[in-house]
Write a sequence for this structure.
């Protein structure tokens, strides 16, 4: 597994459609020269990278470098100006209607910094809602799966608690279970531990680590450098809307080539 | 002020600032300037009533029945009128809420014509004087309609109810819009990333969270509507105010005026004050929970 991960280089770029899921060396997510702007403010200035099936990619960089926007572009929450984004069998940059975007989002799930659980629903209901109403699956089957997922994230005892009754770390784990209940191909994590206190960060990271080991394709925006080094196959350092430097974590963290990367890492490591 | 001193360069401004911020928030959510009954209003009314009775008693002929006997004699009739006021308020509130919610949703529609149309209707009826709307409904609606050859009469009280439902509708529309827009956009984002469509997001995720926020301003609106139902007397509906005028002309004792009208006010106060208190309680409870 790890060999296969290392074999897949970072330079693989689109041009190769077909069913990405069958061949683990094909990228399941591929961005090419993505530009995005809010009004006159350019947020992304030509970002290209790809992720293999089962790959774990971490995006690091200073605040305001466009990391979160990048994730929102991948699941179509934010439209892009130019470039191409391909996720599984979807050309994300070409999706126009809500139906098309919804089809994409069934494959790509996102976990947010502020958890964003639905406060009027219990933990279990939060997990069950989307599979029942979006995927139209059988309620009993979904319940079984939801309980299993909550057990997996260590919250079986809290299934009937409302989000307001849970700690930040617990809420975030429910949010991860909620995303997993959709059985996505790709998981996006947007600074999921940034709002947590240091002790609860660990429980959330353990959950993500387990997911990555099971072969879930993950793209993480994170400030947890030690964690990134441990689980990532590849790390991208972004600044000012571009990817400054990419590489396997050992190389990027220990022998950064660019001065900007060195400056950033020296501030936080 | 007691307790710990606050860490601020302008400690004097803080208490007022907090109070003003709370009032502003309440008004933003309510979409209307809040008219809130207080206990002191009740005491003032009671005072006016007692004073009115005293004046009436002093002015009356020695052989005339006492003022309380007179009031008691007319009370069953006035109570019937009051029930009619309540009926009008219930029906106007039900119609106004149903249509107003629809209009509120239309105000956040993604289709510009729907959104702008709903915005215009809301602001037109919200800013028009209630009495003008009442007159419009009285004189523009026909007194009967013919559906498939069956004549259905439209009595005056129905028209008055519709006339009062219009401003209620507009206010509910604003309450709904305000509540929906007060839900953090991250909830929309989370729902979107779980592949909910817009309709599902609105009905299953956003609106259920709005109900709590809408309840206090909605109850406040109901209290205002109840007090406004007496406007129907101007267009000749047999509600409490009209019947009071009849009673006064039947008695033909000018001194009774203050006593009778403050008596009517007391009835409305006794009905509306608990609603106002309950609204305040709900507001406080939800403010803590959110």
């Amino acid at each position: 597994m790890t060999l296969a991960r290392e074999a897949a280089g970072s330079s693989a770029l689109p041009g190769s459609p077909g069913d990405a899921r069958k061949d683990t060396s094909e990228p399941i997510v591929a961005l090419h020269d993505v530009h995005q702007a809010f009004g006159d403010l350019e947020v992304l200035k030509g970002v290209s990278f790809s992720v293999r099936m089962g790959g774990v990619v971490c995006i690091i960089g200073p605040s305001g470098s466009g990391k979160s926007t990048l994730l929102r572009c991948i699941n179509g929450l934010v439209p892009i100006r130019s470039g191409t984004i391909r996720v599984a069998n979807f050309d994300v940059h070409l999706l126009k209607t809500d139906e098309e975007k919804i089809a994409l989002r069934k494959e790509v799930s996102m976990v947010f910094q502020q958890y964003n659980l639905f406060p009027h629903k219990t933990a279990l209901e939060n997990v069950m809602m989307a599979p029942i109403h979006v995927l139209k699956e059988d309620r009993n089957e979904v319940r079984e799966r939801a309980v299993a997922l909550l057990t997996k994230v260590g919250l079986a005892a809290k299934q009937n608690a409302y989000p307001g009754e849970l700690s930040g770390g617990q809420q975030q784990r429910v949010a991860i279970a909620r995303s997993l209940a959709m059985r996505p191909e790709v998981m996006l994590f947007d600074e999921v531990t940034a709002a947590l206190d240091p002790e609860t960060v660990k429980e959330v990271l353990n959950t993500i680590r387990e997911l990555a080991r099971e072969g879930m394709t993950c793209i993480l925006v994170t400030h947890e450098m030690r964690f990134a080094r441990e689980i990532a196959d590849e790390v991208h350092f972004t600044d000012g809307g571009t990817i400054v430097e990419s590489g396997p974590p050992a190389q990027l963290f220990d022998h950064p080539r660019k001065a900007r990367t060195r400056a950033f890492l020296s501030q936080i490591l | 002020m007691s307790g710990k001193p606050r860490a601020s360069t302008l400690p004097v401004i803080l208490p007022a600032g907090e109070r003003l911020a709370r009032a502003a928030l309440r008004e933003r959510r309510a979409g209307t300037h809040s008219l809130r009954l207080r206990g002191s209003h009740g005491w003032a009314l009671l005072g006016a009533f007692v004073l009115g009775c005293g004046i009436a008693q002093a002015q009356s002929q020695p052989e005339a029945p006492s003022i309380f006997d007179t009031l008691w004699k007319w009370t069953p009739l006035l109570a019937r009128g009051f029930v009619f006021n309540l009926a009008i308020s219930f029906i106007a509130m039900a119609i106004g809420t149903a249509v107003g919610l629809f209009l509120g949703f239309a105000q956040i529609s993604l289709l510009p014509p729907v959104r702008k149309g709903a915005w215009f209707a809301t602001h037109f009826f919200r800013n028009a004087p209630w009495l003008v709307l009442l007159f419009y409904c009285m004189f523009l609606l026909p007194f009967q309609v013919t559906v498939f050859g069956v004549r259905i009469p439209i009595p005056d009280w129905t028209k008055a109810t519709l006339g009062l439902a219009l401003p209620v509708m507009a206010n509910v529309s604003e309450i709904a819009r305000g509540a929906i827009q007060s839900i953090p956009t991250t909830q929309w984002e989370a729902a979107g990333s779980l592949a909910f469509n817009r309709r599902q997001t609105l009905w299953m995720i956003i609106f259920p969270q709005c109900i709590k926020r809408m309840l206090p301003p909605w109850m406040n609106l109901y209290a205002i509507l109840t007090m406004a139902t007496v406007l129907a007397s101007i267009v000749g509906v047999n509600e409490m105010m009209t019947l009071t005028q009849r009673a006064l002309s039947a008695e033909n004792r000018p001194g009774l005026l203050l006593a009778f009208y403050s008596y009517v006010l007391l009835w409305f106060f006794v009905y509306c004050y608990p609603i106002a208190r309950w609204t305040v309680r709900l507001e406080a409870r939800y403010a803590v929970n959110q």
Summary: The longest helix of chain B spans residues 67-107. The beta strands of chain B are 144-147, 150-153. The longest strand of chain B covers residues 144-147. Residues 130 and 251 of chain B are 31 Å apart (CA to CA).
